[in-house]
Amino acid sequence: MNTWDTVNQKNGWIESIKREGKFVIKKNTKKVQVWLLPEDVKTPDDLNRLTHYACFEAATLLWRLGVVVDISKVAVNTKHISIEQSELDRMIPKGTNVTVKLNRTIEKIFENDKEEEAYAKIDDSPFKCIETNDVKYARDVLLMPEYIKATNRAMEGLVEHWNIHLPLMQKTDKGIDELRIGISQLVEVVKELRDVIKELNK
User: Fold this and answer.
1) Residue 83, class by beta-carbon neighbours within 10 Å (0-12 exposed, 13-18 middle, 19+ buried)?
2) Which of 50, 128, 166, 180 is surrounded by the most beta carbons within 10 Å?
3) Inter-residue contact 130 to 119 (CB < 8 Å)
4) What's the domain range around 115?
5) Residue where a domain stops, chosen among 94, 121, 142
């Protein structure tokens, strides 16, 4: 009895496809590909845990289907992360498509993941979101409110520091002005003294 949903034979290649739960599995005599259906994850770290868990779960499913895989060679081929941003509807005009290259490679999930340039984009999807292929970027976007809070705390500390030191700086400025006046007066005295000495030496 065939345990695969469909079996296709093309040009000597046998390709089998299995759909079960959140997985779509396709295998041929050369490789096995597994698609993990979209999941609602709260943080990028949840995505990492989900991907590792899915790797072992898919390997177990394949083993039940009579396919043994070497999970030490597993790699993420395509990663598509959507970060919901409801405020984008107000900020981005309809029909806008923007892609930004982040000038670095993506943060890998598995060691064997291919080197890939990180990007972030906004397109004219029905649901406005920021899309990226990089876990680090997704993490930074989700932590943006915390970054802003930390910046505000730092600014508050800077203002407090400034308020404490401003009176001292004003006193210092006053002292410097008085010192400058005293030095000017001393210079004048020295000039007068020099003129006196010249007169005595005649």
Assistant:
1) middle
2) 128
3) no
4) 79-142
5) 142
By C-alpha distance, which of 39, 162, 55, 170 is closest to 111? 55
DSSP 127-162: S-EEEES-HHHHHHHHTHHHHHHHHHHHHHHHHHHH
Q: pLDDT (tens digit, 9 = 90+) per residue, 11-21?
A: 777 788 888 88
Among the candidates 74, 97, 121, a domain finishes at 74
What is the predicted pLDDT for the residue at 1?
Answer: 46
In DSSP terms, 83 is beta-bridged to 130
Number of domains forming the structure of the chain: 3
Maximal C-alpha separation, the chain:
130
Q: Which residue has the higher pLDDT, 33 or 126?
A: 33
**150 and 198 fall within a common domain:** yes
